[in-house]
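Action item from last meeting closed. Structure (176 res):
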C-alpha cells in the first residue's frame, strides 16, 4: 500500500502534467485568436461581399419565378437556389379567444393545443390546417414562396460564424 508521502508525490506529478497540458492548450488558443484577429478584417469584407452578391442573386430569383416551377430548386456551383414554400408564421390576435375557440371546436384535443396554465401550445397549433386555424381565430402570414440560397457545404458558414462570434465577444470584453 502506498504511503501518504508517495500519494502526495504522485499527485504533484499529476498536477504538473495537467499544468503542462493546460499551457499547451493556452498557446494553441492564443495562436488561433491571433490568426482570427489578423484575418478578421478580410473576413468581414468577404462577408459583406457575400451579402451583396446574395442580395443580387435573390432579386434575380424573385424576378424569375417561372424558372423555378419544376424543379422548384436547382444546384449550381454547389449552391442550392430557387423557390420553396414558406413555413409561415401564425399570428394570434387574442390568445384567450383562441383558447375558447379551441375548446369549442376541438374539445377532445384541447389539452394538446393549450398549456395547463391556459396558454397556447404554438408548436401543436402549427400542425393545424389553414381552415382549422381560421376556426380558432388565427391567421397564417408569410406562407408564400420564399427564395432559397443555401450552400450545400455548410462547413465554411460554421467557421465564419464562429470567427465572427469570437471577435464580437472579444470586442465586447474590450469595451467592458
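Sequence:
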Amino acid at each position: 500500500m502506498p504511503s501518504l508521502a508517495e500519494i502526495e508525490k504522485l499527485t504533484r506529478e499529476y498536477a504538473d502534467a495537467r499544468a503542462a497540458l493546460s499551457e499547451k492548450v493556452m498557446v494553441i488558443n492564443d495562436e488561433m485568436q491571433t490568426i482570427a484577429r489578423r484575418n478578421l478584417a478580410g473576413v468581414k469584407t468577404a462577408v459583406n461581399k457575400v451579402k451583396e452578391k446574395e442580395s443580387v442573386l435573390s432579386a434575380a430569383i424573385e424576378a424569375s419565378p417561372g424558372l423555378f416551377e419544376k424543379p422548384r430548386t436547382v444546384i449550381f456551383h454547389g449552391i442550392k437556389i430557387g423557390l420553396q414554400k414558406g413555413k409561415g408564421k401564425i399570428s394570434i390576435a387574442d390568445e384567450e379567444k383562441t383558447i375558447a375557440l379551441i375548446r369549442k371546436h376541438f374539445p377532445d384535443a384541447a389539452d394538446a393545443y393549450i398549456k395547463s396554465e391556459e396558454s397556447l401550445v404554438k408548436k401543436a397549433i402549427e400542425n393545424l390546417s389553414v381552415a382549422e386555424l381560421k376556426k380558432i381565430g388565427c391567421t397564417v402570414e408569410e406562407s408564400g414562396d420564399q427564395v432559397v440560397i443555401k450552400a450545400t457545404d455548410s462547413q465554411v458558414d460554421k467557421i465564419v460564424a464562429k470567427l465572427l462570434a469570437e471577435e464580437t465577444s472579444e470586442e465586447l470584453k474590450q469595451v467592458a
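Note appended to the action item: The longest helix spans residues 4-62.
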